[in-house]
């Protein structure tokens, strides 16, 4: 079920009413309702893959219980590996099997022994990368004794399958989300109103910004060989807004929806395009994934401790693995590696924690240094996004060499001029809203302190904006494919 | 919870009202190219405005033509009048699908009271969503309860937006001074609904195979039109106007389509009766040029005479 669909617009109020009016008195029933609703939500796409979620839930639940009882280190390690193998096994099979087979045959053939291997027609289950990482966080934290394993299967199943963030995150930590299922939830007006505000802004990001950018992005990327450098660069810039609007929009809707049910999820995006260097960008972009890798991969590898060579190795590992997490394609690996290259100078010069504050906090406009560094960071991010969007490595390099050609200084070749002007106006509005809202958790967060007339007037305008500028064909979220 | 529900209950109707005002405001101040989901082009493409205006004042009609651009660019009512002194009126419109044809039949059948209806049934009409044509008719004809029915049937955001704005324009007399040029680009509006295109020739391009599609709501509307004609005792014939051979042969399930259409009434496929040349008699893959139109209309008259229609 898509957040931007009529199905969800009907589904959400039904679950809301059942949750707060029918099952309010019984916490277990409320959690059971969440499990059922989540399975319906996921099964709407393909019910067959519910078995994967159920299996993963069962394995991690029993592994968790066993870890709670087991004191012997060897046994505990074995249990942890069972969980890792099951979860990463699913992920490996559904997401990476064909990639490895394909590359293996190419590599084998390269050494003069051509072999033929059949690829499988595998459907990638929606959201598998997200929920496997979420359940892994549970078993790892139980293994590390940071978390007491739960005996409440329904709560655990609700934690794994919680529908607002099931298919595209935020990837929640068991330490944050699971305890929320144990506590009785009472309706909180402020939290629910905040949730509605966040959902609305998420829909604007997805339906007004991302989907309209997608129109030009698709044309430019699919015909990149025919366009000049400035148009290709513009395609990259528009993709930067598309991916941000799409993914951060999803996160906002997910977090907002959770608030309607009395849950607090972690912030997943914090105005990343106002970052002044790439380290700040990665603290603000897909926070739940970055911190996941930090806590469960980077720090166990040694983090920023040890020799310089060791640190460089760790940075490359975390960025490349993060890239590979996004998809089984070399483009994602290069995208990850490129970000590591961007990050490295900051790490080596120990300047990766220079910008921990909010840019131009308390002021309307940034100083010129911030403007330049924001611009530069955005520019290198756009170049990296080309790898993320390109069909393959060859396409990405051809695209980038197209950008850095003499025609970069020609006028962009825009065929549908009026629509292009329109998207520029919409993006300008969006940037302004994000800039003035950057001190909150999301762009329209600050509206809550405004008088009702301003608040409601703004909501009505945003609703209208969606109605007037949304694409009328349902468009899935990009991150569903990950 | 009570406060939350009360606020929602107050916010929803207020935002509906605000939405309507903003919609009209947007329609008035924002140029049409910058309104993605409100498309109100009047006078628009295909001279629909002039045609509908004339339809309201037309005398009793002997033959009424219905259909898409193949109808208003293919049935030259002047020819019929010259040859037989028969007054015909062409009520075709751009991308007209059965949903719109039904609305026009409901709106104009009584006033025009034709003795024969000729409906152009290109294989593509049943697969259309009907949005483009709905927008065209809303912007270029008066709006009434038939418009609402059509919008509900089309069930598309653009249609609803445009309908609201069109009703506003009608009610506030914003269309009263509207005039349409008879010559627009290469199109010249001739009397009684026909549009003549400046003479040009089709340059062949590749056509890809495709299937005739049937949308349930279009088939339902089509059946309703025929039932209405039967109830009103107006005889009708179904006609497939000629298209280029390349396009005609691109349909992979034409037999299935013909089976379907033959069950609905007398059907004449002029692609089979005529041997037109793609390059000489068409200006694009779908439309006849004036030379092709003359040949087609002559053949049509012969067919009508032969069948004593």
UniProtKB/TrEMBL annotation, chain A:
Q: Which GO terms describe its biological process?
A: alginic acid biosynthetic process
Q: Where does this chain mainly localize? A: membrane
Annotated keywords: Acyltransferase, Cell membrane, Membrane, Transferase, Transmembrane, Transmembrane helix
What is an example of a GO molecular function annotated in this UniProt entry?
acyltransferase activity
Q: Which InterPro entries match?
A: Ac/AlaTfrase_AlgI/DltB, AlgI, MB_O-acyltransferase, MBOAT_fam
- Cell compartments where the protein resides: Cell membrane
> According to Swiss-Prot or TrEMBL, what is its membrane topology?
Multi-pass membrane protein
Cited Pfam families: MBOAT
Q: Which family does it belong to?
A: Belongs to the membrane-bound acyltransferase family.
Q: What is this protein called?
A: Acyltransferase
What organism does the record attribute this protein to? Answer: Constantimarinum furrinae
State the taxonomy lineage: Bacteria, Pseudomonadati, Bacteroidota, Flavobacteriia, Flavobacteriales
TrEMBL record, chain B:
Report which superkingdom the organism of origin falls in.
Bacteria
Organism encoding this protein:
Constantimarinum furrinae
Q: What UniProt keywords apply to this chain's record, in alphabetical order?
A: Membrane, Transmembrane, Transmembrane helix
Protein name according to UniProt: SGNH/GDSL hydrolase family protein
Q: Where are the transmembrane segments?
A: 6-26
